[in-house]
């Protein structure tokens, strides 16, 4: 990148070029990071491209661009991300919430009766539980997390968003889950194969492995949580799980084997099988 003292427009161009080989969203990344160090909205960058940038700000921007070139997620660099209508704090202790996970929230809200009880297993940043609480203030929501560091992030988000009614508690589904009955149990569990190519190409190296890796076929955690989750569903309650794009068939079989009915898989906006749900008779 060129010397400090450059304009906003020049900095954006050079940041984009620096990221082009490392990110499919190079221009957007550069915009977000420059807006972050300037303390302005992205619209400011477009309105005032000729404005000079202070030297110290250029150095801070360069440092973020360098980190992004290594594959570090923009959300970690900014320490926040957008999910549904919420702004969430995120750290390397939690997965960065993905856009496709918003569909999990939509399904949970659609399946939830008035005043219903929801359990989220493995809440991470709290994204799913807090989004459901935001959209359904009538719901009674419990969310568990086995990572102490991740649970602290979820608690921070709950406090900052004013969603104190969400009950956050330590928990590992391998050791049991809170007693129901729950009208909806939802989870975005680990589902990446331990042999997946993403482990070797750096795509996942910055996010917590324990929140991603799930055995040789990516189904170890889903296998372990389905039986106890099913047992805590209310009659007519729904179990809703996010999974990998090629795991829909296997997850449908697991839910059917657990005795759930009306089992179906929903696709994400890219047309990939992304979540499967089933109802307890």
Automatic annotation (TrEMBL):
It catalyses: L-glutaminyl-[peptide chain release factor] + S-adenosyl-L-methionine = N(5)-methyl-L-glutaminyl-[peptide chain release factor] + S-adenosyl-L-homocysteine + H(+). GO terms for biological process: methylation. Residues 11-77 form the Release factor glutamine methyltransferase N-terminal domain. Its EC number is 2.1.1.297. GO terms for molecular function: nucleic acid binding; peptide chain release factor N(5)-glutamine methyltransferase activity. Residues 113-196 form the Methyltransferase small domain. S-adenosyl-L-methionine binds at residues 122-126, 145, 173, 188. Pfam families: MTS, PrmC_N. It is an enzyme of class 2 (transferase). Substrate binds at residues 188-191. InterPro entries: DNA_methylase_N6_adenine_CS, HemK-like, N5-glutamine_MTase, PrmC_N, RF_methyltr_PrmC, SAM-dependent_MTases_sf, Small_mtfrase_dom. Belongs to the protein N5-glutamine methyltransferase family. PrmC subfamily. Methylates the class 1 translation termination release factors RF1/PrfA and RF2/PrfB on the glutamine residue of the universally conserved GGQ motif. This is Release factor glutamine methyltransferase.
């Amino acid at each position: 990148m060129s010397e400090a003292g450059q304009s906003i427009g020049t900095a954006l161009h050079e940041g984009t070029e620096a990221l082009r080989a490392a990110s499919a969203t190079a221009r957007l990344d550069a915009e977000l990071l420059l807006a972050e160090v300037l303390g302005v909205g992205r619209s400011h960058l477009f309105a005032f491209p000729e404005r000079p940038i202070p030297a110290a700000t250029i150095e801070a921007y360069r440092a973020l661009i360098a980190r992004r070139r290594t594959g570090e997620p923009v959300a970690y660099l900014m320490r926040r991300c957008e999910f549904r209508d919420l702004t969430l704090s995120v750290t390397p202790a939690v997965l960065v919430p993905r856009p496709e996970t918003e569909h999990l929230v939509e399904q949970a809200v659609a399946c939830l009766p008035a005043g219903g009880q929801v359990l989220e297993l493995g809440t991470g940043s709290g994204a799913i539980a807090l989004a459901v609480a935001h959209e359904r203030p009538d719901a009674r929501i419990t969310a568990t997390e086995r990572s102490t560091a991740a649970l602290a992030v979820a608690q921070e988000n709950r406090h900052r968003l004013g969603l104190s009614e969400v009950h956050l508690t330590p928990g590992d589904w391998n050791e049991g889950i809170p007693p129901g009955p729950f009208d909806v149990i939802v989870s975005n569990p680990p589902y990446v194969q331990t042999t997946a190519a993403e482990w070797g190409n750096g795509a996942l190296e910055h996010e917590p492995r324990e929140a991603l890796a799930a055995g040789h076929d990516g189904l170890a955690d889903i296998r372990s949580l389905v039986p106890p989750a099913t047992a805590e569903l209310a009659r007519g309650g729904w179990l809703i799980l996010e999974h990998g794009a090629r795991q829909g068939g296997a997850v449908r079989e697991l839910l059917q084997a657990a005795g759930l009915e009306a089992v179906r898989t929903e696709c994400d906006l890219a047309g990939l099988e992304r979540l499967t749900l089933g109802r307890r008779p």
